[in-house]
Amino acid sequence: LVGLMDDFSDFATYESELNRFTDEYHQTLLCLYDLGHFAGIGVVDLLRTHRRILLGGLVIDNPHYLSPDEYLTTREERGHGWASRTSTERQVTQLVAQYQSNAEIGARLALSQAVVDRHLHRVFRKLDVNSRADVARHVPKRIARSEKGRVHGWVVMGRQRSHE
Amino acid sequence: VITYVEVFPLLVAACPGYEQSSFAAEADEADGVFLRVGHLVRYLIDALDRSEPHELTAVFGVVDCVLEEGDDEARSLITDGFFDDLTNTDFYDGACTRPHDFVPWLGPRAMELPDVRRLSERPRGTDEA
Question: Does the distance separating the beta carbons of B90 and A117 come in below 8 Å?
Answer without folding.
Answer: no
